Amino acid sequence: MKLTVDGLHVVLDHQPILRDVSLEAQQGDIVGLIGPNGSGKSTLLRAVYRSLRPARGVVRVAGDDVWKLPARAAARRTAAVLQDSAGTAVGLCVKEIVALGRTPHHGLLGRDGADDHRAVEEALDACGARTLEDRDFASLSGGERQRVLLARALAQRPKLLVLDELTNHLDIRARFELLDLIRGTGTTTLAVLHDLDLAARLCDHLVVLNEGTVAAAGPVLDVLTTEVLREVFGVQAVAERHADGVIRITYGANPLAIGRATEPLTSAVPRSAPAPATPPAPTTPAPTTPAAPSTVPPAVPHPAPSVAAVASASAAASPSASPPSSAEPPTPPPTEHEAPALG
Amino acid sequence: MSAHTSAWQRTARTPLVSRLPPLSHALAVPFPFALPRGLAPRRAAALPRGLARARKATLSRGLARARGRVLLRVFAARTADTSPAPAKEQRPPPPSHPVKGPRGPRIVKIPTAPLLVALLAVLAATMMVAVSIGAVTIPVADVWQIVWHHLTGSGSAADPALDQIVWNFRTPRVVLAALVGAGLAVSGVVLQAVVANPLADPYVLGVSSGASLGAVMVITMAGGALGGLGVSAAAFAGAMIAVALVFVLGQTRGRVAPTRLVLSGVAVGYLFLAGTSYLQLQATPTELRSVMFWMLGSVAGAKWNQLGLVSTVVIGSTLFLALFGRQLNALLAGDESATALGVDVHRLRAVLLVLSSLLTGTVIAVAGGIGFVGLMIPHLVRLAVGADHRRLLPLAAVVGSIYLVVVDLLSRTVNRPNELPLGILTALFGAPFFLWLLRRNRSLDAG
């Protein structure tokens, strides 16, 4: 079902965390929410799964304003897999964990019925976790835990899935397995992801948050422009669709040297390359960007040649050859990106 | 070692029921199972398909392990072999997402209702035995006759002296012990979940120090100081004042943060302890002795007329708290996740804290500060039946009852004719148990 976030303002301890955030996800869409640390991604999710009341603005799931619904009714529409459950080590077995997903479907006197059992078993099957059902949750590996938590969310029979860093700390195979599972649910999904490569693979649309506002939104390639990667994420990188149809991100040889790199990096890999990117720029997980763009030192004393080497591959295609403009990075053309005052 | 042997060892290392206590392994498995190693592979072929698959998958990775360990795992595998449970595990996993075969601890379930009924029967039997034992030992049959007579009015009245001992002295005492044990266990279960801390017990919010101060004031100041309140009433009042103080200090804008709450409880506890200690220094030796006895807890003074209130509070709040089983489970997933599951975490916390404080305050007012029951019984029952609060709460209540009835029996028999305070005995058993628990709990290793 459709998710609409409209004009959301969230204030926490008198600090504005989100300012006028709007986004939309159509039925069945997977929308990725990306942005540097502290950009307000988790706060936005909290407003969506009804944990943090926005100061202004509405969140609609399937047409209903979730903040006007009772908590349980909202939880029957929206299921969330958050990071605070991953460490649960409490003597609940997998089936019991998944059965927690039935919580919003019952009041104090409700007892589990056939429908609950069916929902739990379907969720276990959908996540390939049936063989784990009697295991102690604490004994599972990281990938198995996330699988089980996803099953818990599916047992809610939600119209919207909210996922916060589901693939964090997982090995690479487990990550891809989870992506498959998420795509397999067919449920409208809003997912916070740090790994831009995974985000590019998983999502139909991306929303970039920066300092509490939407810096870019739209189809993956429209959003992951070199400018956005530089201005918002503070890295020198390029996203492009390869011959196999997969969008990959190639990071520059010295991805932090954006103060010097005035030309956007384009293809470091031949566009016709059939195989994934090769050694010079392996698709590493996105670095936890240490700072907002403005705080990146403009003149990093890195050897210029490495930047130049990458940039030279881009031939003459870039007209934006502005001079290395001191403290402030150049303003990105498409978005209402504010020059931030504080970190 | 041959390839066969190591393959078998790998198979045998698939522990299906390792959460079962060792005793049940021994019971479930015919003993002469230490086969010569050469026979082992044939046995492996008879394992259910799921296990055979696991064996195949691990064939190449097989490494020899210590023989003792292998035999232990063989027990585990065989136990699973004879149980009906594996039928489901043979279901092939969905092809696109292969999950490795079962490994690691599994939780074995006994249905709640039969277990509860069995434990209630044990409780009834323990209470009968506890009533029958004392300075005068009365046969259980006579005890039953007297109790039956009083409960139903039918049957013949017994010897008035025996009737007096059984019905007016021992029965209220044993019933109070059972109620106190249940109350403390339930309160412990709830508080451990609500403040998300395995070390929480019913006194974590300063209940006991508040109650102690109230009781000590009455004992040492000869009652007049508090307007003629009895010890119980003063203890209850002290407990409620302490808890209210902790709530006020532990919340921010109406929301209770567990860590702040626990730390506030500790601080308020010390504050009240200072008062208690000061009064104790001023007390005469006789007063001091009764203060000590009160603080360590006892059900010796039980009277029928106080049981009405206590049983209403304990049974009522246990039943009411049991309704929150599902919400308590959700709380285990984390505050944010519980919120996303439609639980109003802050209101739930407030309701549960108030209820469990009332429960603890009532119990401590009539029985003094009995330690360790509220910490140890929840952990014990959780280890045995898992953490699903819909099971855990009622079962912990009954197990707590049984435990305190037994401890009370010991307290008046081990050192006859003197009685020991309950707190000494609960801690005497409780502390070593708790240390053992800390040693074996793997989830505590990480922190």
UniProtKB/TrEMBL annotation, chain A:
<dbReference type="InterPro" id="IPR003439">
    <property type="entry name" value="ABC_transporter-like_ATP-bd"/>
</dbReference>
<keyword id="KW-0813">Transport</keyword>
<feature type="compositionally biased region" description="Pro residues">
    <location>
        <begin position="276"/>
        <end position="304"/>
    </location>
</feature>
<keyword id="KW-0067">ATP-binding</keyword>
<feature type="region of interest" description="Disordered">
    <location>
        <begin position="268"/>
        <end position="343"/>
    </location>
</feature>
<dbReference type="Pfam" id="PF00005">
    <property type="entry name" value="ABC_tran"/>
</dbReference>
<dbReference type="InterPro" id="IPR017871">
    <property type="entry name" value="ABC_transporter-like_CS"/>
</dbReference>
<dbReference type="InterPro" id="IPR027417">
    <property type="entry name" value="P-loop_NTPase"/>
</dbReference>
<dbReference type="GO" id="GO:0005524">
    <property type="term" value="F:ATP binding"/>
</dbReference>
<keyword id="KW-0547">Nucleotide-binding</keyword>
<dbReference type="InterPro" id="IPR003593">
    <property type="entry name" value="AAA+_ATPase"/>
</dbReference>
<protein>
    <submittedName>
        <fullName>Iron complex transport system ATP-binding protein</fullName>
    </submittedName>
</protein>
<feature type="compositionally biased region" description="Low complexity">
    <location>
        <begin position="305"/>
        <end position="325"/>
    </location>
</feature>
<dbReference type="GO" id="GO:0016887">
    <property type="term" value="F:ATP hydrolysis activity"/>
</dbReference>
<feature type="domain" description="ABC transporter">
    <location>
        <begin position="3"/>
        <end position="236"/>
    </location>
</feature>
